[in-house]
Amino acid sequence: MTLIAILVGTVAAGVGSVWLAAFLSFAMLARFTQHMLSLAAGALMATAFMHLLPEAFESAAGAHELFALLLGGLVFFFLLDKAELWHHGHEHHHGPVAEHDHQDRHHSHAHHHHGHGHAHDRHKDEPRSGGWAVLAGDSVHAFGDGILIASAFVADLRLGVVAALAVLAHEVPHHMGDLVVLRQTSGTARAALVKVSLAGTVTALGGLVGYLLLSQLDDWLPYFLVAASSSFVYVALADLIPQLQKRLSLRETAAQVLWLLGGIGLVTLVSGLAHRH
Is the overall model pTM greater than 0.90, yes or no? Predict the structure, then answer.
């Protein structure tokens, strides 16, 4: 009975949060596509700095080890990005130039002309990197969430339900950011949804492993949290923030900053409420 409850709870939290985030990102907020980049950057950074890292450093794990893992994770995702860029450049050397031209024309039609020069150059690179870093970080994070949900269900069934709902709630804002990044790297909203959903199913794997090996894995949770954090920090600072650093009007800049702060505030608020309950 407990194992079934763990599996149901982890799937609901891991995949349900992705589909709710997709509804908000692609349906309700579809007309704010450009602002979603700012929201995504804020959400990913806040998830790392306001949620995952504080929980990791509140544990008995040594700060020196955790910082070393954070640094190692950033270097790892930098190299992963390089490998992804090389792989796509090698595979598509004579690739979909026409598709890029079509997308650039659409981009030019949809947005102000003074930013087209930057958009044209960046757009060719945007779909080439960041995807694997997000998926790897999501998978590690989801595995850790599954262990946390399993431990709550083992302690008490009602506590497990609350934990699953809390995970679902606090994952929605940062999954919105993930979907924005994956939509760029994958090219379509459907491909992005499928990839993030598959990463979300790792929550169930974490729940199963947590149920079987809960006492042995408890000490490893801080390291899972830091490893996931390194991917979110890297994607936000290396992929999303550079896309926002272009010359805009004062009004556009203010909107960009507000959406960035909105992503930070949303994750901080939801994570705080989930942690409190």
Answer: no
